[in-house]
Amino acid sequence: MTHGLPGYVCPDDGARADVRTAPWCCPVCAGPWDLDFVAEPVGTPGAGPHSLWRYGPALPLPGAPTVSLGEGCTPLVPLTDRISAKLDFLMPTLSFKDRGAVMLAELARRLGPERVVADSSGNAGTSVAAYCARAGLPCEVFVPEGTSAKKTEQIKAHGARVRRIGGGREAAARAARAAADEPGVFYASHVFNPYFLHGTKTYVYEVWEALGGELPEVLVVPVGNGTLLLGAALAIAELARAGVRAPALVGVQAAAVAPLAAAFAAGAHELTVPGAAAPTLAEGIAIPAPPRARQILAAVRASGGTFLTVPEDAIRAAQRDLAARGLYVEPTAAACWAAVGPAAPADPLSSRTAVLPLCGAGAASGLAPDTRPGPVGT
CB-hemisphere CA count at 13 Å for 351? Predict the structure, then answer.
């Protein structure tokens, strides 16, 4: 049943489309869609099922969902007296991407396509594949040829077909979008489809609930395509209407690939020149030209936040430091700790309280190699 599904609206030119017949992007400007949806108040923290579906009134899929793996309600644990980590590596596929993927799979199930396609360099592809398996939907994931074997093995394990594409991340995206133009195909894009963002916003609702109906002074978020940050901005705006104090958004990028940080520092409102594609341990946020760049920059500015960048040695050290604290996560997840943790230069948070996400299990990517010279004879 597709009755009552909120439709798409373009944030740039106002074009609108029915979700049942819409192309995967705005036909006027080819940009990503937003959703024509106003969330209802979610009520008292602590009510509802023990999953992200407890925030049903704030989600754009009416009625009871049938696609779920128990995602959401991940714990919040302190790292210092001011900084806490939300352990989204305890999600079903080890990543916050499950929050958005479950929305896309539930949407696709209601629309009834012949197959689902997605593009990803890792976590998003695994997540979409898992939830398509749960929904009984055929799935095909386009990945860059350099994607690690561990990532592709995870995707295949869920029954999805993996298509390796030469030419890097953008080439994989172009191939998926070409397939998405074919009849009977649903494009489960974590970037272009706004239902994904309304799933990731549950991250902030859970923080709000864990903190007794409040939010920290700062939310620190790793930013590549910006899907967690933009979802956070949606939730912050919705909770602000209920009188909840809005936090600042601090976006973190690897110094090797930091187009948004550079644009923000230059006072730009959009990317005029894409960033360089360079090797980085934080491959999950190494996005030279995020399609929602304008929205990301605007959200950070509106919150009174900023961008921070971290070099490779700091990412490596942060991953090892978190592992020594009992939290073994992939390098991309460690970038936020590198930016604001005890080893960060000065105090980038200005002594404010903060929450950062940890997602992606280190076992799926390995511990970043330590290039420091070891003791003689080792």
Answer: 0
